[in-house]
Amino acid sequence: MEKIAIITDSTSDLTQDIIDKYDIKVMPLQIIYQSKIYRDKVDITPEQIYSGMEREVPKTSLPLTADVVKTFEQLKQEGYTHILGAFISSGLSGTYNMVRNMANDYKDDFVIELLDSKSISWGSGFGIVEAAKAREAGSNFEEIVAIAKKAIKNTRSIFVLPTLYYLKKGGRMGRVEGTVGDLLNIKPIVGVDEAGDGQYFTIKKVRGRKKSLTELFNVIHNLVKDKEAFEVIVLSGNAPEESTEIAEKFKAMPNCKYVLETSVSPVIGVHTGPGLLALSVKCDSGMDNIKEDK
Fold it and tell me: What start and end residues bound the annotated signal peptide (predicted)?
């Protein structure tokens, strides 16, 4: 009989309620801040990160080797036979490759399927949640893997930032152009190339915060307005009022079946800074790729 574990990393931005409800195992990335090491969403909160970023920009790192080993060993002790995992894009972090390499030591203990989401936040989170729902409904491992892959394939994630300073500081610019953006008050709408290398790219460049939030909503609205149904996650980095304003716009759409407002993890916050607004949207009937601004 199959006993299936579902694992992910802390940047999937699942709420604690969802983690507890579906028994999802989360491997935290690390934050190095003020000469101390913290585990993402375990030892440090986003608010702690944002409050001190003007004095010192933290650094981030992969999960502790000991945490990954502990996860696999605990699953073995608890009698799990199969493991499904989905992780932050390998184009943005070495987490997926790290866990995949360490999983080789356990190939005789489990049937393991690890997915590179080629995305971030709920770009992998949707796949994890849909897999967990399928496990709860009694699906077998092969079916659960297919459901997770479909959810990830049908999810798009985009965001906008007040400044590109922190993205540049952390070396996560990808194909986003930001040399003079801050000087001209240009706010690029940034996407993740889920169909390609899993790196950031510029969807559209707009001037000013207010217009950038309008365009953030419009990009996703245009993707889903003719769909039968969609689900959306509205994520913020210390911008709750703007987050709620966008969430309310989606709630007013008759084909919007689910809206969740939540915060990005501290690790993501390190690379985006305060003021991030992000959207992850899933449509089971399929999603077009978001085009890069040329």
Answer: none
The residue written with tokens 């899993």 in the block is: 198
Neighbours of 284 (CB within 10 A): 15
Q: Are 237 and 46 in contact (CB under 8 A)?
A: yes
Residue 237: which of 210, 206, 263 has the closest Cα?
A: 263
Residue 181 burial by Cβ neighbours in a 10 Å radius (0-12, 13-18, 19+): buried
| Choice between 108 and 187, residue whose per-residue pLDDT is larger | 108
For Cα atoms 90, 49, 59, give the angle at the middle one, nearest 5 degrees: 45
Cα gap 111→125, rounded to integer Å: 21
Q: Rg of the Cα trace of the chain? A: 19
Q: Which domains does the chain have, with CATH numbers?
A: 4-28+63-153 (3.40.50.10440), 155-282 (3.30.1180.10)
